[in-house]
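The records we work with from here on pair a chain with its fold. These numbers are not coordinates but entries in a learned vocabulary of local backbone shapes. To see the layout at work, look at the sequence and tokens printed below.

. . .
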Amino acid sequence: MFRKRFYYIIQLQYLGFRYHGWQKQPNVNTLQRMVERTINYVLETKDFKVLAAGRTDAKVSANEAYIELFVDHTPLELKDFFDLFNQNLPQDIRAISIQETDEQFNIIQHPKIKEYIYLFTFGKKFHPFSAPFMYNITEDLNIDLMVTAAKLFEGKHNFRSYCHRPNENTIVHGEIIQCEIVKNTLYTASFFPEESYLLRVKGEGFKRNQIRLMMGVLLDLGKGKIDIDFIKQTLDPDREKITLEHIVPGSGLILNSVTLKNEIL
């Protein structure tokens, strides 16, 4: 029997601090689990499927993320669905918009530019309320040196040292369009420290834990544990692979924006 299918794109925001990442897993709370459970409740059916534009790790947040919703048999009344969906989502997940698309669009395969930021501060220990949003380093950091080194990641490189536990099928080459460290004026709160910073990284795709490993090596540089030549060596394809182990906490990482190429939104 022919099954009619309807296609939608939903933009989401979420605070990832209490979730074990996007992807559904047994015995833990994930964003995919909560989103699908809410859709099931609103539609009163399991005749749907959800795909995400990317899978965030545990405690990682998103200011702008997209999912594609496939619904079988009956089209959605967009406003009614959207209002009920938002009303029943947990308070740390919010839907921003919904629009209909078609079978030609695939959220995973469609080319896109992602911008991640990593918030951090150093010196005096921060207010505990800041913990879901940024990473606190108690040692002093050489920020100027870190700013210089961040630019080394821009361009096309072999990022094998910045991929956690790659296998023989892992694509280790990639391109970073922008990488910079600047003072944080993007996200503020009364309980945030007076001065904080962010690492901004922009590109089409990233390896497993890539940005958190990049942040880790830049912090090691700022602490004086390594020099800038070491970072250059990690990006040198002619050198033996350097395995990096400093993966900073996921709670400082935010998927800040996703731009779909040949923008349809």
Notes: Strands lie at 5-14, 48-52, 61-72, 93-101, 112-122, 135-137, 155-158, 173-183, 197-203, 253-260.
